[in-house]
Write a structure and sequence with these properties.
Blueprint (H helix, E strand, L loop, with lengths): L1 H29 L3 E7 L5 H11 L4 E7 L3 H8 L5 E5 L8 H9 L8 E5 L16 E7 L6 H4 L1 H5 L3 E5 L4 H4 L3 H11 L4 E4 L8 H22 L2
Parallel strand pairs: 1-4, 1-5, 2-3, 2-4, 5-6, 6-7
Length: 227
């Protein structure tokens, strides 16, 4: 009986979260803000990638930094003089739409074009929790092992962009980045997969191009739907 009750409660939580996520996206659309949910394990390079994108994108950037203790990553983003809200999740291993809703209230949305939402470092917990973002970008590192995709299939099935990071050290850690890419595409043939090294700059232009295409497509869709 307890197991049945737990499943029902979890189901209700996910349904309620989806409703809040849709409301978040309406708020973002009204403000003409494109939101990117950035997911990945601890050490995959999420924070470093967002830092690079802040510097390289020709947009006004905002960031929501989610973590068990968010002040560390939030502090890194604030150095670039962009609006940042830190979300402390405590014992929770993911962000949810309710937390993001409150963060949106604290951001100057009219002064933002692109909002990065850095999720908590985890490849399992965030899967079922839509935040209201327009795009999900998953960052994985070759240092996590080339069986990482096979071990965590669900997060890749729902991704729009997957960045396989730190490919410059693939040989040193005995990882096959080609296998990782093949594993992702087997799970999600429509996803954009980009191999990158933030240290050498490999793949950064491809990431920028992919995000720009999604941003432009989203804005065209919103304009058409508002006619």
């Amino acid at each position: 009986m307890h197991k049945v009750a737990e499943i029902e409660v979890q189901h209700d939580i996910i349904i309620a979260n989806k409703k809040l996520a849709k409301r978040n996206q309406r708020i973002l659309d009204k403000a003409d803000v494109f939101a990117i949910d950035v997911l990945g394990a601890i050490g995959s390079g999420k924070t470093s990638l967002i830092e690079v994108l802040i510097q390289r994108m020709n947009h006004k950037i905002g960031v929501i930094a989610g973590d068990v203790i968010s002040k560390f990553d939030a502090g890194r983003f604030k150095k670039y003089n962009v609006p940042v809200v830190g979300l402390n999740t405590g014992k929770e291993c993911h962000l949810d739409a309710h937390l993001v809703e409150h963060a949106l209230e604290d951001l100057p949305l009219p002064a933002i074009d692109v909002l990065f939402i850095e999720n908590v470092g985890n490849l399992i917990c965030p899967v079922d929790f839509d935040l209201g973002s327009h795009l999900r970008m998953v960052v994985i590192s070759v240092s996590e092992g080339d069986d990482t995709v096979e071990k965590h299939p669900l997060i890749f099935k729902d991704a729009d962009v997957v960045v396989i990071n730190k490919v410059d050290i693939a040989d040193a850690v005995g990882a096959d980045e080609e296998k990782m890419e093949a594993d992702v595409l087997r799970l999600n043939p429509d996803v954009v997969v980009i191999k990158s090294s933030l240290k050498t700059g490999e793949g950064v232009e491809n990431i920028l191009q992919a995000l720009e295409e999604y941003i432009n497509e989203s804005r065209l869709y919103i304009k058409e739907s508002q006619r």
